[in-house]
Amino acid sequence: MSIEHTEPHSVSAADERASTPPSGGSPAPVAWAQAAAVRLSQSTINNPVLVKEFRTRMRGSRAYWMLLGYTLLLAGVLAMMYFAFEADRATRVDAWQAGSSGRATGDLGRAMYYFTFIAQALMVGLITPALTAGAVTIEREQRSYELLVTTPLRSIDLIRGKLTAAVSFVVLLLTASLPLVSISFLAGGVSPSEIFFSYLLIALSAFVYGSLGIFWSAALRTTAAATVVTYLTVLTLGIVTIIPGTPAMNFGAGTNIPEIPFKSLNPVTATLSAVKPEYFFHLQIPGWISAATVNLLLALVIANAAMARLEHFEPPKAFWTRFLSTLLWCSFTLFLFGAFVGAMASSWTGTNPQPGMLLGLYCVVLVLIVVVTPVFNTGDLIVRRGESALGRYFRGLLPSRMFHADLSCGVPLVMAWLAFVFAALGIGMAITGKWTLFSNTASYLPAIVLSACVVFGLAGLGNILSVTLPSRWAACVLTYLAAVVLLLLPYLALLPYNSMAPAARKGGPLWQVLYFVPFEGLRQVTDPAIYRTSAPALIFDKLLPVWVVTSAIYLGLGAFCFFLTLLRIRSADRRLQEEMAARELAYQAAVP
Amino acid sequence: MVDIQHLRKEYSNNLVAVKDLSLNLERGDIFGFIGPNGAGKTSTIKMLATLLRPTSGRAFIDGVDVTREPERVRGVIGYMPDNFGVYDDIKVWEYLDFFAAAYKIPRDKRPRIIDDVLELTDLTVKKDSYVEELSRGMKQRLCLAKTLVHDPQVLLLDEPASGLDPRARIEIKELLKELKSMGKTIIISSHILPELSDFCNKIGIIEQGEMIVSGDVSEIMRQVTGGHMLDVRVHPDDQEKATALLTSRPDIRGVRLVDGDLKVDYTGDSENTHALLAALVTSGIRVRSFTEEQTDLEDIFMKVTRGVVS
Questions:
Q1: Rounded CA gap, B11 and B28, in Å?
Q2: Is this complex's ipTM strictly greater than 0.90?
Q3: Partner-chain contact A152 B71, CB within 8 Å
């Protein structure tokens, strides 16, 4: 049972004193500016962790050897690429003289740009984890962590200091590569803005990797373990994102393949398409905008999660973790659908929405739901003194408590995110001029209802597992597992489904599991004509559309789970109240 | 200043480190926390230092609850763990500057404070040395210096002199005496008693998580020993006669012969030892010296913990 009991922490008087600006009767804007300056100095030059990291990082010869190694390696890559290019050109020139076309010198500039930045992106991926994976574990290993904890340093000071120091060093390395990179200007074919935004994106990817390193460093015991896990995470992220990211690596311009935000998670693909136009509904925006936004938010979310892993320090305010991750999901879905809808709009000739494309969009929403819902709907119910657990649970369902960390606060949060997704989808369709989506309410509204019901069902599952299992992570993993089973397993049971002739699909009990799959309902609403000819015999075939039954199933699942959760909380509530009363009594007796 | 009430700490493996520990210290008290290794000293100090959450019970430092408002408590205490690490690749003054900044001491005030604590810990000559160049004793003093930068009212020192050579040990001791004169409340733990005997005014002996005795040093001495040890040296020929005479007296518990001296366990009033001397002299015993022996903490410790340790 993961109902937690906490006691309110009052804000420390010292902190209050530190955060009040030295106003002294000055007018509001001046006072505000002063307060901002104090805040800025506290997070930069007055952050002791950052100052110490800077001092030790640049002391001795190690940093200079790293700089030398970095630039030499880059110069080596550039030289090899140049000689290979020249050798290739010699054969090209021969070929050109024999009648085929040769390459322009502009190609050399672009090739230099590609090679230097691919090399830099890889090196940053290798160097940054090494800089941060030991950040917290080293403090633990050399037994200086306890000394830090007993100072008034906050977790944000520690993480910010270590992270800023590491990212600054990477930025220093990147700056040192500037002379080598600018050789590509000599050959031409590269614009300064391209170079600038490529640097920006590489620095941001260093921020992401640095945050990952810090996160594992805070979560694990030893530097060795943190380093290994960080490299594995970076490698996995790199491999997973390179697959959808490859279309972005088309070196030429003017391809019709929509650029999707997954590429922004991969430093190589993101960097190389920094200024390539990307669809954003009816607009075309340069690729760096989506990449910068998504990477920045991702790094901030991971850094926030790292703060929560620091034991003895006060955890970060749940608000920021939730707010930032919601912002991340919202921007990610916005760029994703912007790219999809934009690409669809440009390839549509008529006004009829293509059913396959709509179905694809709805499926993406479903996948995102499965990713988002469990993590936000598992957790602890934090009950404070003088409060009933049940009351606390119901209060968490209020939209105003969306960004709080309680168990029940996830439902309004994910629902709000879902509303944002469908609003973006609808408005995006509208502004691209494909109004037919709204005339085709038969697919838009059912998709909204169905998605909301799936969220409700999964959230209910997450809640009941959270209050039943002892660990939050067990609940979270089981909810993910349940989501995958519900959404995919029926297909495994019905593998022969697609190979059968429609006439052979007679009604059988096994077919009914298709009602569990929201995908089926979406198939039916997006293209009823085709579905009718190929549909299996379901019991409510003539009576109700598939999506209605599926929605009802998930709604029922959710309602059942919430009911069980309430029962469980109620039974625990009494015990908890007694315990709290006893503690309060003991406390009152002990206060001097 | 420090108020501990029924503090209890259980670890997840059912080990009870501290059982029902209560303690009350006034401002300026120097409390010696004595016990064998693994008795629960470090657990208690860590709970006071907001590093461990007590299983039950309360602890207040300067009236602030350590579990409810740990951030406020951290500003009042200076904590020195028994096994700590210092950053090696940094200079002594930078190390102190780091902690001064962490304690939010304004930049312009830091140099003076750093000089002061270096002076106090006798490390002024090492100000620009790297921490890794310091000897173990110096590192210990440096750690003590860092616990002093924010002028804490309560010092929690966990085995501050462990693993030091005798000279460094004496230096730490001198330093602690100086801190005592500055009016700080100090809780200092040790498994070695002579370390504490000269300057603690209160002691507590802990064993297997239980505080066996605690209170004023003089009071405990009276409580535990209940008498005085007298050291009587007489002419070797008179030893037997003196032993016979002394053992016959009702106010004497026992007489032992140690290295030619008679160790006399005297239960009477310390004001009346002269009567004993007079009795010896009048019966013709050639008394060469007659002194009252100081009972030290070590004796108390052995007496109190006897039999429980093993």
A1: 32
A2: no
A3: yes
